[in-house]
Amino acid sequence: MSREQRAKIDAMVRQPRPEGPQSVEAIRAGFSAMMAEMIVPTGIRTGATALGDRPAVLVEPADDPRAGTILYFHGGGFVFGSPETAMSLTGNLVTKTGFRAFSLDYRLAPEHPFPAAIDDALSAYRALLDSGEEPSAIAFAGDSAGGGLTITTCLAARDAGLPLPAAIVAFSPGLDTTRTGESMDTKAGADPFFTRESLEHTGAMYLAGRDPHHPMLSPATLADLTGFPPMLLQAGTNEVLLDDSTRMAARARAAGVDVILDITADVPHVFQSFTGVLDEADQALDRAALFLSQHIRTRNTAHTPAT
To answer: Which among 82, 88, 136, 144 is annotated as catalytic?
Structure first.
């Protein structure tokens, strides 16, 4: 049954697409339409809020919330996506853990290239801390580019002298804008979403001429991870960005960081989005929820409202 599910999803996401580079507007519209088909769990309530200078969506369990906060960063190559497009992921983490989540609407390229997204993410984390939330009660989570933000925001927080969060969960994170991982070539035919050319198209919008050989742009190969919190990296074998996760895990281990590298066979980039359709998606989210529940610690059961 699972094999049939994987084959069906692979065929679905391989539907013909326009040839050549697409406009930003077309990319954003296409991604929003695709993600609107994903299943968002019941049992959550959402509301508009703000963290730092940016809008965010607060996602909470409808019943019996637990103390603890997930700061979520959506995917989209830093060019497209929103808290709404990631709601199947954020909503499932909330329902499976009982924690609330803030999904940040960070600025996007090309209007706001590097390092705008990192600046917004750091500001959001600082706002949570300033509101009285303990760092031990906060975890970063994200997918794709947002998975990369879980790492770079930790780097920025450490550089700013802030305490680091309790844990990191990254789904198929993008962690190397130099695109030097072997999987960029070895997985080219297996990946139903990305090609080197498509990644370089959106990547150039984010880089805006910056050298990709920078720890904040390619942390999988250049970042110093000393002092990082425990991290869970999940990826599928059918993605060109697979080695972003494998190299990050090796780098974390070398720095003495507790890291779990969780690879699922024959599934695509951010396969966790297909919850309710793909068994592996639900199972991976269960593992992510367990990891978060094991690492988020609170001193009391009352939330201090964020500003």
So the answer is: 144
CATH code of the domain occupying 2-14+26-295:
3.40.50.1820
Q: Please, what is the Cα angle at 147 between 271 and 283, to 5 degrees?
A: 35
Per-residue confidence at 11, pLDDT binned at 50, 70, 90? confident
Which of 239, 245, 273, 295 is flagged as catalytic?
239
Please tell me the distance from the alpha carbon of residue 119 to that of residue 242, in angstroms, as a whole number: 26
Query: Residue 259, SS3?
Result: strand
**139 touches 295 (CB < 8 A):** yes
Residue 239 annotated among the catalytic residues of the structure? yes
Domain ranges of the chain: 2-14+26-295
303 carries an active-site annotation: no
Catalytic residue among 103, 133, 136, 269: 269
**Contact at 8 Å (CB) between 214 and 242?**
no
User: What is the model's pTM?
Assistant: 0.95
The residue count of the chain comes to: 307
The token pair that represents 154 in the structure block: 């930790």
- 37 catalytically annotated: no
